[in-house]
Amino acid sequence: MDKPRYEIRRIGVFSATKTLFLLGGFSGFLLGLVQWAFMGLIWSVTRDLPAGLDLQGRSALSDFMGDAMVNLAMFFPIFGGFMGAIGGAIMGFFLSWLYNLSVRFWGGLELEWETVQATVAVVPTSHAPGEQTPLPVMRVPSPPPTSEPEPPPGVQENRPPSSMYE
């Protein structure tokens, strides 16, 4: 049996732009959180290192770095989300436009679909004394055979006339 083949002929530019805008904004926000956590880790590790300063100087430097980290904690995720959203929108627009342009010359991406039948696992029904009883197997029914949908009432099939005067 031949596998059905499909081809992607066009990608909606606005659809790709808005999808990558949202994905870029979300991933940029997450990246900003990771950057903030990494900066916090660096600050917490280097906070107590001897820097050749007296005790009061180290305390002032530590307090300054702590205040700066609080400000960066709010800045990195927001800035990362904003830049990710803008970058994602630009890339979504550019890449979908480029794909649609290339389809005109070389054709679209070809996809092959294959329907896979579910397999049923065989579970032994007997077990040794003292062992846990195996769980029952849920059998997955096979999908019904596909048929073409019937036309709505009042719509006749498109057939050639059997004679010229029908």
Quick structural summary:
This protein is mainly alpha-helical.
Radius of gyration: 32 Å
Q: State the total count of DSSP E strands.
A: 2
Order of helices and strands: EHHE
Major beta sheet, strand line-up: 1-2
Helix content: 40-55%
Largest sheet: 2 strands, antiparallel
* Contiguous runs where pLDDT drops below 50 for at least 5 residues: none
User: Which structural class matches the secondary elements?
Assistant: mainly alpha
Please report the number of helical segments. 2
Shape, principal axes of CA atoms: flat
Distance between the termini: 39 Å
Residue-averaged pLDDT: 76
Strand content: under 5%
Structure explained in plain terms:
- This protein has helices at residues 13-46, 55-106, and strands at residues 5-8, 109-112.
- The protein has 166 residues and is mainly alpha-helical.
- It has a domain at 15-92.
- Helix 1 (13-46) runs antiparallel to helix 2 (55-106).
Which key features would you list for this structure?
166 residues, mainly alpha, two-stranded antiparallel ribbon
Note the topology.
Elements: E1 5-8, H1 13-46, H2 55-106, E2 109-112
Antiparallel strand pairs: 1-2
Helix pairs in contact: 1-2
